[in-house]
Amino acid sequence: MTPPREIAEAFLIAGDRLGPMEGRLVWHDDTESTNTIALALAEHGGDEGSVVAADRQTAGRGRRGRTWASPPGAGVYASVVLRPSLRAAPLLTMAAGVALAEGIAAASGLQCDLKWPNDVYARDRKVAGILAEGTAGSVVVGFGINVRPAVMPPDVAARATSIGGELGRDVDRGLVLVECLAALWQRYQDVEARREREVLAAWRARAGRTMGRLIQWHGPDGVERGTMAGVDEEGALLMDNGARVVRIVAGEVEWL
User: What are the φ and ψ backbone dihedral angles of 122, each rounded to 5 degrees?
Assistant: First the structure.
């Protein structure tokens, strides 16, 4: 389908800043999940850099089986097919979090914070989220960004915000999408070129508000509590429980 004018024009202007994503936009007015379509593309040999985006998702997915509210015309809902090396793959979601924060700032001026592993916040309310899923040697990086205020389910409205809501003005969705894609391409290149320290430094710079925060981790041995003590060189979350520093690479983390 033909994308809306604001999306199409933004892609034309962005040009080669998008790397292999240039000219590879697949647009849907309405779909269940952009990740589902992108995963199918990857499985059938779709090009790296293929971008699937939609005006509305009816079954948008978040991490750990959660849903992502995707009202029409209000957000950016997109998924990108990438083929990272085995060495680069572990830091890809953190690189994507950095990229979204940088893209939002470039497109709108809104400065956002990051929470491990890759959630994007403004004033402790969620602006964007990322879901990375692997298949057939590829990783699909999907993201949803709340661009404009919209009616959300009550449980979501209590903890979410939008770029436009924070700034008090309308924001160009096309510009947000292409700036985030351009930043994603740059940060993806960073992890592939062994510039992981640059990515981690950028992530830490935007995660300062979470340092020392009380967290609860649902790990393999039960629930543990401690304070956020940073991330290591491989992107694992470090939690100080008073007796030792626990290295967290998976499991549910709650910010208290």
Answer: -130, 120
Integer Cα distance of 16 and 254 in angstroms: 39
Structure tokens at 206: 């935007």
CA distances from 127 to 63, 76, 110, 154, 170 (A): 15, 11, 11, 16, 15
Place of tokens 């950016």: 76
Clarify whether residues 63 and 181 are in a common domain.
yes
- The answer to whether 50 and 26 have CB atoms below 8 angstroms apart is yes
Residues 11-43: pLDDT tens digits? 999 999 999 999 999 999 999 999 999 999 999
Q: What is the CATH number of the domain that holds 216?
A: 2.30.30.100
Q: What is the residue-wise DSSP string for 165-188?
A: HHHTS---HHHHHHHHHHHHHHHH
Q: Note whether 163 and 251 are same-domain residues.
A: no
pLDDT band at 63 (very low <50, low <70, confident <90, very high): low
Q: What is the pTM of this model?
A: 0.93
In this structure, the answer to whether residues 127 and 218 fall within a common structural domain is: no
205-230: pLDDT as tens digits: 999 999 999 999 998 888 999 999 99
Query: Considering the chain, what is the average pLDDT of its residues?
Result: 92
Same domain for 189 and 223: no
